[in-house]
Amino acid sequence: MTLALLAIIGGFVLLIWSADRFVEGAAATAKHLGMPSLLIGMVVVGFGTSAPEMVVSAMASLDGNPDLALGNAIGSNIVNIGLILGITAMLAPISVHSNIVRKELPLLTLIGAAVGFILWDGALSRFESLLLLGGFAGLVGWTIFMALRARGDNLEVETDQLLTAHAMPIKKALLWLVLGLIALIISSRILVWGAVTVAQALGVSDLIIGLTIVAFGTSLPELAASIIAVRRGEHDIAIGNVVGSNMFNLLAVIGIAGLINPVSAFPADIISRDWATMMLMTVGLLVMTFSLHKVGQLNRLKGGILLMSFVAYNAWLLLTVMS
User: Fold this and answer.
1) How far apart are alpha carbons 298 and 307 in whole angstroms?
2) Are 119 and 275 in contact (CB under 8 A)?
3) Are 271 and 120 in contact (CB under 8 A)?
4) How confident is the model over 62-66, as a mean pLDDT?
5) Per-residue confidence (pLDDT) for residue 236, from 0 to 100
6) Burial state string for 249-279 with b = 16 or more CB within 10 A and e = fewer than 16
7) 227-236 burial, b for 16+ CB within 10 Å, e for fewer?
8) What is the DSSP letter of 268?
9) 78 touches 281 (CB < 8 A)
10) Residues 300-310: tens digit of each pLDDT
């Protein structure tokens, strides 16, 4: 038990470090290859903040723990909206004025509804997983297209600053790219082993562990990115980071997990409790940020509501475990 807890803590630390190294190496390598700064920002940052969820869920599926993989994806979305945006908005109100963000929020709601429709029968087949991954490929293409059309957006300025601050020689960039990827895989295996061992020792399901401990740990990059973005005044990046990550989680993380290990039957709570909570919070975020004017705002009051919703959901999970 003690070794498993140390594995979870150590796995989280190594996971966050390796994800940061991987993103930095990938961004610098892409820059050396002549990719546009904005394109690097959309693809690398998007993949980077979702890399922990993707790798952890893939490892969980390979190890025969698909419930943990599904719980990680849906739980991470709940953490992103309730905890991360809640805390970020309470630290500093978030202005929402980017055309890309306003279009992405309704799209996120539609993707969430589509995922619910796929999971409604209590199973996830390889064909359905391929559909999700196809949607993910389409999303990446659409995001890149929209980003290139919006070259004056704040994201381009932020990306240029990021790449300038992290300029490095090509050999060092390739080294961090490879080492970061290897460390991501190793840390994910350590984390999944520790989480499953603790769940079995406490008599808690893999799903609950995935929805709580693992979901929180793999969402730490989004928390750091959103807080840093708000402190720099890049409000659209703060909320766009969360919205984009949630789309990646629903399409890529669940898609990869189901492709590796199709699920013939998972707990009904995934739909009635977890997916429903995720959708309520997603729709709530859409309503909170909607404005008839050009600028909407996620103020401290709305941030507090999101945070309290997250606390209430986790209290619900705790009652489920105790019952």
Assistant:
1) 12
2) yes
3) yes
4) 84
5) 67
6) bbbbbbbbbbbbbbbeebbebbbebbbebbb
7) bebbeeebbb
8) T
9) yes
10) 999 999 999 99
Structural domain that includes position 260: 2-322
The residue type found at 13 is V
Beta-strand ranges (E) seen in 230-307 are: 296-298
Of 205, 234, 221, whose CA–CA distance to 68 is shortest?
Answer: 205
Number of domains in the chain: 1
Reported confidence tier of residue 126, pLDDT bands at 50, 70, 90 = very high
Q: Per-residue pLDDT tens for 92-124?
A: 888 776 565 667 889 999 999 999 999 999 999
Is residue 214's pLDDT more than 80?
Answer: yes
Query: Which pTM value belongs to this model?
Result: 0.81
13 class by beta-carbon count within 10 Å (0-12 exposed, 13-18 middle, 19+ buried)? middle
Whole-angstrom Cα Rg for the chain = 19
Query: Distance between CA atoms of 284 and 289, rounded to whole angstroms?
Result: 9
Chain mean pLDDT for the chain: 81
Q: Which of 56, 34, 31 is nearest to 44 (CA)?
A: 31
CA distance 65 to 199: 12
168 in helix, strand or coil?
Answer: coil
Contacts with 108 (C-beta within 8 Å, 6 or more apart), sequence order: 243, 246, 247, 282
* Cα(8)–Cα(211) distance, integer angstroms: 15
CATH number of the domain enclosing 11: 1.20.1420.30
Q: Under DSSP, is residue 265 helix (H, G, I), strand (E, B) or coil?
A: coil
What does DSSP say about strands 94-96 and 296-298: parallel, antiparallel, or unpaired? Answer: antiparallel
Residue among 264, 304, 272, 269 at smallest CA distance from 288: 304
SS3 state of residue 264: coil
Instruction: Work out the average pLDDT over 195-214.
Output: 82
